[in-house]
C-alpha cells in the first residue's frame, strides 16, 4: 500500500509540475506576443517617413520638371535625414497653412518662406536658423543709366583721375617727340613751340589709341626709338585704364539710386502678398502692387509696370539671373532668420538643432550655399 500510495502521489506531483510548467510557458508566450505587438507598431510608426511641408520659393525650395524637389532647404533636409537616420517625404503646402498644419499634426515639420517670428512661436517651435537673410529691392537697369548717372560718372573723382593718368603721359611724350623731331622733320613737327608741341600731342594720342592716321611719323633714330617705347607703353596704359573704367562703371551701376526705405514711398512698388516683404511694406505704409509669385513680379518690373520689386533678397538674387535688364539694388532691410517649423514641444527638437548646427559648420554646407547664392554672405 505504501508503494501504491507512493506511486500515485509521485505521479500526481509530476503531472502537477508538468501542468504548471506548461501554463507558465504559455503565459510567457502570450505575454510576449502582446508585449511585442505594440513594440512592432511603435517601430513601424517610427520608420514611417515624416511629412514635411514645402512651398516652391527659389533658391530654398524648387521643383524640377520630373516632380523632384531641390534647393537650399531640400539639401538641408537631406543632411538632417542622414544625420538623424530618419526618412521624410515632401508635401506641397500653401505658406499660409504651414504653421496651422504643423500645429494640428497634419505635418511633422515644414520648411518654407516663414521667417522666425514671435506670433508663430506661440503655437509651434522653430529650430535653429539655417539661413539669415533680409528683404531686397530689384530695379531696372535702364532707370539707372540715365543722363544724370552719366554726368555723375564723367565728373566723378575716379574718372577724372583716370583721365589724368591718360593725358599726362600724352603731353610728356608729345613734347619729347617735338624736341627730337623739330629740326630733322619740320614739315610734320613745326619748329614753333605752340604748333610743334600740339603736333606732338596729336601724334602721341593717335599712336596710343592705335588709330594711326599716318600723317605724322618720326624720322630720326631717337624719335623712332621713342615711338617704339610709346607704342608698347600705350598698349599697357590703355589696357589698365580700360579695366579701371569698367570696374568703376560696374561699381557705379551696382550703387542703387534707392538708398533708403524712404525712397520706396515715391515709387510704384510690387511684391508677393502674405510674404515677409509685404509685411514690411505695410509697416512702412507703402501700398504695393501684388503679384502671385517672384517670376511674375520681375516680368512686370522689366515691362515697366512697376518701378521696384521688393521681396526676399536671396530669392531676388536667384530670380534675377534670368533678367538681364534688372539688377539688385544695394538697399536691404529687415534682417530675417529661417528655420524648420516643428510641433510645439517636439521631443526631437534638440536633436534636430544639433544636427542643423553640425551641418552649418561643415565645409560641404558652405559649398552648397555658394552654389545657390555665390555672391551672398553666410
From TrEMBL:
Domain Solute-binding protein family 3/N-terminal: 49-376
Subcellular location: Membrane
InterPro entries the UniProt entry points to: Ionotropic_Glu_rcpt, Iontro_rcpt_C, Solute-binding_3/MltF_N
One Pfam family here: SBP_bac_3
UniProt main location, coarse: membrane
Membrane-spanning parts: 158-180, 192-213, 225-247
UniProt keyword terms in alphabetical order: Glycoprotein, Ion channel, Ion transport, Membrane, Receptor, Signal, Transmembrane, Transmembrane helix, Transport
SUPFAM superfamilies found in the cross-reference section: Periplasmic binding protein-like II, Voltage-gated potassium channels
Sequence ranges assigned to domain Ionotropic glutamate receptor C-terminal in this UniProt record: 49-375
Entries under SMART domains matching the protein: PBPb, PBPe
Topology with respect to the bilayer: Multi-pass membrane protein
GO molecular function: ligand-gated monoatomic ion channel activity
Gene3D superfamilies: 1.10.287.70, Periplasmic binding protein-like II (3.40.190.10)
Name by which UniProt lists this protein: Transporter substrate-binding domain-containing protein
Species in which this protein is naturally found: Martelella lutilitoris
Lineage of source species: Bacteria, Pseudomonadati, Pseudomonadota, Alphaproteobacteria, Hyphomicrobiales
Amino acid at each position: 500500500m505504501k508503494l501504491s500510495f507512493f506511486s500515485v502521489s509521485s505521479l500526481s506531483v509530476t503531472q502537477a509540475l508538468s501542468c504548471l510548467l506548461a501554463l507558465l510557458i504559455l503565459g510567457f508566450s502570450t505575454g510576449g506576443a502582446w508585449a511585442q505587438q505594440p513594440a512592432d507598431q511603435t517601430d513601424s510608426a517610427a520608420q514611417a517617413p515624416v511629412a514635411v511641408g514645402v512651398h516652391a520659393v527659389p533658391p530654398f525650395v524648387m521643383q524640377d520638371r520630373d516632380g523632384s524637389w531641390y534647393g537650399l532647404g531640400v539639401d538641408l533636409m537631406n543632411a538632417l535625414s542622414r544625420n538623424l537616420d530618419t526618412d521624410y517625404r515632401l508635401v506641397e503646402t500653401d505658406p499660409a497653412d504651414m504653421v496651422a498644419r504643423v500645429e494640428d499634426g497634419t505635418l511633422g515639420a515644414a520648411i518654407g518662406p516663414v521667417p522666425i517670428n514671435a506670433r508663430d512661436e506661440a503655437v509651434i517651435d522653430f529650430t535653429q536658423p539655417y539661413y539669415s537673410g533680409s528683404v531686397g529691392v530689384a530695379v531696372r537697369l535702364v532707370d539707372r543709366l540715365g543722363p544724370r548717372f552719366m554726368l555723375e560718372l564723367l565728373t566723378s573723382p575716379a574718372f577724372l583721375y583716370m583721365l589724368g593718368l591718360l593725358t599726362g603721359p600724352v603731353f610728356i611724350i608729345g613734347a619729347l617727340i617735338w624736341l627730337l623731331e623739330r629740326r630733322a622733320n619740320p614739315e610734320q613737327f613745326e619748329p614753333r613751340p605752340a604748333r610743334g608741341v600740339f603736333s606732338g600731342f596729336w601724334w602721341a594720342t593717335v599712336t596710343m589709341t592705335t588709330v594711326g592716321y599716318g600723317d605724322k611719323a618720326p624720322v630720326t633714330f631717337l624719335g623712332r626709338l621713342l615711338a617704339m617705347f610709346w607704342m608698347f607703353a600705350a598698349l599697357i596704359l590703355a589696357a589698365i585704364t580700360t579695366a579701371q573704367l569698367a570696374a568703376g562703371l560696374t561699381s557705379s551701376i551696382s550703387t542703387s539710386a534707392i538708398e533708403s526705405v524712404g525712397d520706396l514711398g515715391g515709387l510704384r512698388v510690387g511684391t508677393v502678398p502674405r510674404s515677409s516683404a509685404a509685411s514690411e511694406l505695410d509697416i512702412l505704409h507703402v501700398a504695393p502692387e501684388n503679384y502671385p509669385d517672384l517670376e511674375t513680379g520681375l516680368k512686370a518690373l522689366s515691362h515697366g509696370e512697376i518701378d521696384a520689386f521688393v521681396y526676399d533678397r536671396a530669392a531676388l538674387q536667384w530670380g534675377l539671373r534670368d533678367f538681364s535688364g534688372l539688377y539688385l539694388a544695394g538697399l536691404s532691410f529687415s534682417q530675417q532668420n529661417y528655420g524648420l517649423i516643428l510641433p510645439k514641444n517636439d521631443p526631437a527638437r534638440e536633436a534636430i538643432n544639433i544636427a542643423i548646427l553640425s551641418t552649418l559648420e561643415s565645409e560641404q554646407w558652405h559649398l552648397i550655399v555658394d552654389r545657390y547664392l555665390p555672391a551672398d554672405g553666410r
